[in-house]
């Protein structure tokens, strides 16, 4: 279904009894290994379902087989961990694998998040092995339509919901014209789950920061990804802009006025970029491969109107690697953040810049992502009370993706990297250092760094 058709669907239509299904946020790892889909939960009538989506959120849980309608309150979020749990934790994460949102042979597949969870188990980076140091948030609200509409056009949101009938009939539809973004009958619901996981982690980190100087760093292990989704519709595998929605939530619900977004996905986060072009209180900084999809993110894209200067795009030449990214961090990211003085840092964490990833040609390593995770955590501690939430974006080689995310967890814990056990220096080649230096100098000149 072309996006233009989605935009024409202006109103909600109550879904059929059989079409309104609730899914577990996360199943057991062993079920994932067996490629099981989310199990069906309680069937709800369409009017009741959307009444709660519009007025609040719906509560989902790993541990129950029913869904509980919950009104949302920033002060009394009954799905958050206790203060003690938050105080003890050093890492908190949430899982939304969207197993029903899947297309055979598509790079953005339902195998991605389970591969990460399997690696976390293998490397003993879960509560089972680490006790209170690592906390999985297992109960959280779905994002509401109002949450999504803080970034996206309501016509798009309602149109996507309506398209679920067609997806149910056909099994799978394209929702970006002839582009690569698809939907199944569960896509709308699972996208609300993904966005809701991010919001719950923001709530948790903010709550923890009120009681400790070094709150846990959070990671939303979610899909579909979000940073390409533009305000008017889907794009580039992405359905809803998870990071952008979380940024507005931090502002509206928690009063965190200044939000600093770092996007180190190999592709430009054009959707996040577009959502905040004229907003001086949300600084969007993207590093990405020059010339890669979707072709946006040029040096001179710096925001408009009141937001001019609050968008920084740094396209890096193909072949850029660990040395380039370390230089970018210290010469560009740090001074920008220091000057902006954020209240919270959100990260679009794309792992598709890895040298083994099939969709681009940077040569980051697992060690590069460890460095970024460690340094961004420290930057948040230095500038905004440690408030920092990572959101999974790209990463399509399951091995490099899962090992790199696991090593990011080790960075959050302050433990040594295990990148040497995975990375193979022999496959790396000389970085284009002169072109990298020129790109960095150009962006520093434009932004007076």
TrEMBL record:
Pfam families, per database record: Hist_deacetyl
Keyword Cytoplasm assigned: no
Signal peptide: none
Domain Histone deacetylase per the UniProt entry, residue ranges: 106-410
Gene Ontology MF annotations: histone deacetylase activity
GO BP term (any one): epigenetic regulation of gene expression
Keyword Heme among UniProt keywords: no
UniProt cofactor(s): Zn(2+)
Organism, as annotated: Gossypium tomentosum
Keywords, ordered alphabetically: Chromatin regulator, Repressor
PANTHER family for this protein: HISTONE DEACETYLASE 14, CHLOROPLASTIC (PTHR10625:SF11), HISTONE DEACETYLASE HDAC1-RELATED (PTHR10625)
Gene Ontology CC annotations of this record: cytoplasm; histone deacetylase complex
Protein name as annotated: Histone deacetylase domain-containing protein
């Amino acid at each position: 279904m072309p996006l233009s058709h989605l935009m024409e669907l202006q109103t909600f239509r109550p879904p059929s009894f059989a079409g309104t299904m609730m899914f577990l946020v996360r199943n057991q790892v062993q079920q994932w290994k067996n490629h099981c889909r989310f199990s069906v939960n309680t069937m709800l009538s369409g009017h009741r379902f959307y009444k709660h989506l519009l007025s609040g959120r719906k509560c989902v849980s790993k541990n129950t087989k029913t869904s509980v309608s919950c009104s949302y309150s920033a002060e009394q979020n009954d799905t958050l961990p206790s203060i003690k749990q938050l105080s003890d934790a050093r890492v908190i994460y949430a899982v939304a694998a969207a197993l029903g949102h899947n297309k055979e042979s598509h790079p953005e597949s339902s195998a991605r998040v389970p591969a990460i969870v399997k690696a976390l188990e293998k490397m003993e980076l879960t509560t089972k092995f680490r006790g209170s140091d690592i906390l999985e948030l297992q109960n959280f609200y779905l994002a509401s339509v109002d949450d999504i509409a803080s970034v996206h056009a309501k016509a798009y949101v309602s149109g996507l919901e309506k398209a679920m009938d067609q997806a149910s009939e056909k099994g799978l539809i394209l929702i970006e014209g002839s582009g690569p973004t698809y939907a199944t009958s569960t896509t709308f619901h699972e996208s609300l789950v993904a966005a809701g996981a991010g919001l719950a982690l923001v709530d948790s980190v903010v709550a923890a920061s009120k009681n400790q100087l070094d709150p846990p760093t959070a990671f939303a292990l979610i899909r579909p990804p979000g940073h390409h989704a533009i305000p008017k519709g889907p794009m580039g595998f992405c359905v809803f802009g998870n990071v952008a929605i979380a940024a507005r939530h931090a502002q509206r619900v928690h009063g965190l006025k200044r939000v600093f977004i770092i996007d180190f996905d190999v592709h430009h986060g054009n959707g996040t970029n577009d959502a905040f072009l004229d907003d001086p209180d949300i600084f969007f900084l993207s590093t990405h491969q020059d010339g890669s999809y979707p072709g946006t993110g040029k040096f001179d894209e710096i925001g408009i109107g009141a937001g001019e200067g609050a968008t920084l795009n740094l396209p890096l030449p193909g072949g850029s690697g660990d040395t380039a990214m370390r230089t970018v961090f210290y010469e560009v990211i740090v001074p920008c953040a220091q000057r902006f003085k954020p209240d919270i840092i959100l990260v679009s964490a794309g792992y598709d810049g890895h040298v083994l990833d099939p969709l681009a040609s940077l040569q980051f390593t697992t060690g590069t992502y460890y460095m970024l995770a460690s340094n961004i955590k420290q930057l948040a501690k230095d500038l905004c009370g440690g408030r920092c939430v990572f959101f999974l974006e790209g990463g399509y080689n399951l091995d490099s993706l899962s090992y790199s995310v696991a090593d990011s967890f080790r960075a959050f814990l302050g433990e040594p990297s295990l990148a040497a056990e995975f990375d193979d220096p022999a496959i790396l080649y000389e970085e284009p250092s002169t072109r990298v230096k020129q790109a960095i100098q150009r962006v520093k000149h434009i932004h007076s760094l």
